[in-house]
Amino acid sequence: MDGGRDFGAVEGFVAPSAEVESQVWRIRLTSMAKPTLYESVIVESYLPTKTAGLHGKVHIRPVAGQQYPQTLHVECSKSLTRDYPVGTRFRIQAKLTDREGGGQFLYSYFGWPVEVLE
């Protein structure tokens, strides 16, 4: 599982045993983000009633009636919460992902273009 590279010619390189290599790949597969595609999602800014464990006053969530629940957190550009009034809706490209030891959330790269809807 070395990506096709020949490490046998590298001086001092000792190939891992099959057992060690298997453990490494098992760790990689269980700690990776979900392999989902980016899709168009309409989100809105809001003021959460509970802020325990959250950063900032204004947050972003999916708009009701889509494939994602409004309880799902959205990680995206801070400009959406900073530069527009609370309640503004946006169309972003996002994917469902997760962190090891954490829950699922929608992720959108902060540098991508955003369509302001209202």
Question: Would you mind describing this structure in some detail?
Answer:
- By secondary structure, the chain is an alpha+beta fold.
- It has two helices and six strands.
- It has a domain at 39-116: OB fold (Dihydrolipoamide Acetyltransferase, E2P) (Beta Barrel), CATH 2.40.50.
- The chain has helices spanning 18-31, 79-82; strands at 39-46, 59-62, 73-75, 89-98, 104-107, 115-116.
- Strands 1, 2, 3, 4, 5 and 6 form a six-stranded mixed β-sheet that branches.
Give the topology, please.
Elements: H1 18-31, E1 39-46, E2 59-62, E3 73-75, H2 79-82, E4 89-98, E5 104-107, E6 115-116
Parallel strand pairs: 3-5
Antiparallel strand pairs: 1-2, 1-4, 4-5, 4-6
